């Protein structure tokens, strides 16, 4: 009985072992990606080959980067290597009058030949790389002269492209934003035009080692047609080149990107010239206000003066502190003088009115009666000495042509102490009349006429 039981256990153990082996084999097939054959004998899919395991030639080996010393320029100790340059301006970001600079974004491309990078190719096609290879080979050390700030764009990666041709020609392109200085002349501001330049030059290599040149002449500079600025009209772009000399290091090739900008005047007409002109015209309103309305004329004059001061301060706050006079300064300060003269005009009218009232008061105190004047018009118009009896000195302010003439009557009494007592009551008077309203009448014509003449001269010179 016991041997039979042992045989049964051994058989059961063998069956369990065979089952585990089958499960293990099935799992292994799933892991290795094997596919069971179809019942008709065709496979469900083909096994793809892993191309990453295929041995390829590395770029460093193809270009033989490790076989050469790329710290030295191509054709070292030989003639100067020519490096062609072309530029595509993407945008003019800003022009700052206060800082006297401009910001430009551009695509800068260099062309040269380095035989050390030549490689065999049956199709004569170039190879393109990103910025990682640039750190291993020689590239021109071009920098921006008079640059304040500049950077290479790095979103999402460094915006650098390197293209190598089989014969060793290289194209090196990068996207740069640069802020450079621009010497501006504001003597005609805001009716001015500005010419700015972006200058490129090799930092280390003189003209004996590296020759920078525009690859296609004037065609080397291209601009986007959509470039526009809020305050300027871009008139033209052009290129030039010349040699720059440094006393310590020598001569260098320098390339120039020149562009001319003309300022839009309409903004300044609305913000500066029209308000200033309106303030000057508003100051003329006081010439039509009665001279006895002191609060009205004084407040109007002070308001226009303060407003002109505010306009002048606002314009100068947005401009650099230059030592010369700008065109807008001339216009604003002449306008300020016109406004200030209108205040002085009323001061003169008010002063003469006060003198008139004081003289009239003295005459009333000195004359016992002014009711018997026989010929008042002769007294008004008289400009020579005449002997008039005290009792015949009548009223002043006689109507003429239906209008009341307000004048200042000045009586100069000439007494002669050496005359007899019978002539003590006789005095000589000098009568002079000054029309205070005539000042306002003349100002209504002189002030507008002079200001119109100034505008004609100003705009004919600066337009």
From TrEMBL:
InterPro entries: GABAA/Glycine_rcpt (IPR006028), GABAAa_rho_rcpt (IPR008057), Neur_chan_lig-bd (IPR006202), Neur_chan_lig-bd_sf (IPR036734), Neur_channel (IPR006201), Neuro-gated_channel_TM_sf (IPR036719), Neuro_actylchol_rec (IPR038050), Neurotrans-gated_channel_TM (IPR006029)
Sorted UniProt keywords: Cell membrane, Chloride, Chloride channel, Disulfide bond, Glycoprotein, Ion channel, Ion transport, Membrane, Postsynaptic cell membrane, Signal, Synapse, Transmembrane, Transmembrane helix, Transport
Record-annotated Neurotransmitter-gated ion-channel transmembrane domain positions: 272-378
Pfam family, one: Neur_chan_memb
Membrane topology: Multi-pass membrane protein
Stretches that traverse the bilayer: 265-286, 298-318, 330-352, 442-461
Leader sequence residues: 1-21
Entry-linked PROSITE patterns: NEUROTR_ION_CHANNEL
Presence of keyword Glycoprotein: yes
Molecular function via GO: chloride channel activity; extracellular ligand-gated monoatomic ion channel activity; GABA-A receptor activity
GO cellular component: chloride channel complex; postsynaptic membrane
Chief location: membrane
Compartment list: Postsynaptic cell membrane
Domain Neurotransmitter-gated ion-channel ligand-binding: 61-264
Record field: catalytic activity: chloride(in) = chloride(out)
Family label: Belongs to the ligand-gated ion channel (TC 1.A.9) family.
Protein name: GABA(C) receptor
Organism for this UniProt entry: Lepisosteus oculatus
